[in-house]
Amino acid sequence: MSVPGHDALAPSPWVQRWTVLVPAGAQVLDVACGRGRHVRWFAERGCRVTGVDRDAEALVPLAGIAQTVVADIEHGPWPLPGQRFDAVVVTNYLWRPLLPLIVDSVADGGVLIYETFALGNETVGKPSNPDFLLRPGELLQAAMPLRTVAFEDGFLPSPDRFVQRIAAVRDAGTLRRHPL
Predict the structure, then answer these.
(1) What is the pLDDT along the chain (180 residues), one digit of tens a residue?
(2) I need a surface site. Which of 31, 43, 56, 180 has the fewest CB within 10 A?
(3) Count of alpha carbons within 13 Å of 166, Cβ hemisphere only?
(4) β pairing state of 85-91 and 106-117
(5) The dihedral of CA 134, 135, 140, 144: what is its sign?
(6) Residue 116 contacts residue 164 (beta carbons within 8 Å)
(7) Alpha-carbon span 37 to 48, nearest angstrom
(8) What gap in Å lies between CA 30 and CA 161, rounded to an integer?
């Protein structure tokens, strides 16, 4: 589930922080990209970006910036079967049946940067439906084939929300150095 209006916001600080793991020229997949705040972020850094969303109208302004794919990934087939990316980015979106496909879309040496709502969020706002809230440790478990670089599970203010977020890599050689 996506949060209305989140597309117009600046890139997520979590995504910004872990962008250092994504080299210029990398192929990046933004799942449920909406109007493309992260598509733009990575394109501005010299990445080749693919944005997937079911809202064709939202993708129109991204046509000159990225490859766009209109697809209902919750009710239709995965639109990029067998394709792998140097980075896969997901924010404010959860559809549990896709978690294995999302993780499998991370190439060798690639990174998964994922941030979405967690249980507890129902006490402060939307989404409040448990179908769209990660259970404790669920994102860690989903990313088990990858090596976790960073993980957080808790409350964030302004706006108040409960989230889980992870940066994880599929090992293939050495990890680029990132100062904490």
Answers:
(1) 444 444 457 999 999 999 999 999 999 999 999 999 999 999 999 999 999 999 999 999 999 999 999 999 999 999 999 999 999 999 999 999 999 999 999 999 999 999 999 999 999 999 999 999 999 999 999 999 999 999 999 999 989 999 999 999 999 754 445 455
(2) 180
(3) 22
(4) parallel
(5) negative
(6) yes
(7) 15
(8) 22
Check the CA dihedral 151-157-158-160 and report its sign.
Answer: positive
* Residue for token pair 């979405």: 116
Dihedral, CA of residue 39, residue 2, residue 55 and residue 66, to nearest 10: 10
* Residue found under tokens 């210029």: 24
Place of tokens 């599970």: 153
